[in-house]
């Protein structure tokens, strides 16, 4: 059956800049905003944009991510004419076992894409927080008769070296591209969102692989090759909230911004919902000693202490006389009594024993990792 568009979500990154938080799970599986995991935003954008065929490319620590995505049912993608498919590295005839880069991951999954027989393939990152209608970007792509369209937005100049940056002409055609340059010539940054004409991209990937030319990464190799060959490459300028949560500071800041009821992301918009897997846990419970202010408290939480301007994911427990302020507490964390947590991120299933103090200082965010234990007899040994 002919499918106009297939989306490929690249969700295999290690996320090393998140340190302890990604030692045992992939970055796109990291909890966010109490009710979600980071990948939920890309998946929800696909569902809301009418893209029902989605390949999720995984690699690093994929177990939690695979279980979370499943067959895409939580996002309404498990339809008779669509699905979400987990795509993992496998040993091929040439001995390849792991993805060498973003475009190599797509090359390794050519058979999956060809089964859908699409005109276009949308390449997405699984680790950004945003809402975007990909259909509008596809309309722009068609209008420009583009071979490749890159989603872009301006960033702060001091941040530009972290991104692929580009210059465009008056028609939005890209004339110059630099991938993570030391001295950027522009602050117009790639969002890691691409729309390709699939037959043309496939030709590039297959031809260069057969000639042993390096074509492993979209930013370093594919986009420069398209520009060298005078392909029609355009920039689609996105206006809206978009956050790369690849560092501890950016992840914490995005969660704190999420608490604003007037947040630009507008999570309560019934016309563009962000979906996630429902954990089917118990309702939250606040004891007579609990004090909660300006916070997000999700299902399964049990609170006997004080929570101020913080985000609590599912099944968090907070003991008496404990104070949580300006912090992110991920699913399953247990906080004992008389604990002080401020300007911190506490990883999933962490255990913070009675009397512990975890406070970010000197502008740094304090981090406790996945299943990490702090305080108590363990630390006294």
From TrEMBL:
Binding site for alpha-D-glucose 1-phosphate: 164, 179-180, 190
GO molecular function, one term: glucose-1-phosphate adenylyltransferase activity
Site feature Could play a key role in the communication between the regulatory and the substrate sites, where: 59, 98
Pathway involvement of the protein, from the record: Glycan biosynthesis; glycogen biosynthesis
Domain of life the protein comes from: Bacteria
CDD domains (UniProt xref): ADP_Glucose_PP, LbH_G1P_AT_C
Domain Glucose-1-phosphate adenylyltransferase/Bifunctional protein GlmU-like C-terminal hexapeptide stretches: 289-362
GO biological process, one term: glycogen biosynthetic process
Reaction catalysis annotation: alpha-D-glucose 1-phosphate + ATP + H(+) = ADP-alpha-D-glucose + diphosphate
Domain Nucleotidyl transferase: 7-259
EC number from the UniProt entry: 2.7.7.27
Keywords: ATP-binding, Carbohydrate metabolism, Glycogen biosynthesis, Glycogen metabolism, Nucleotide-binding, Nucleotidyltransferase, Transferase
Quaternary state and interactors: Homotetramer.
Functional description taken from the UniProt entry: Involved in the biosynthesis of ADP-glucose, a building block required for the elongation reactions to produce glycogen. Catalyzes the reaction between ATP and alpha-D-glucose 1-phosphate (G1P) to produce pyrophosphate and ADP-Glc.
Family to which this protein belongs: Belongs to the bacterial/plant glucose-1-phosphate adenylyltransferase family.
Name listed for the protein in its UniProt record: Glucose-1-phosphate adenylyltransferase
Species, as recorded: Marinilactibacillus piezotolerans
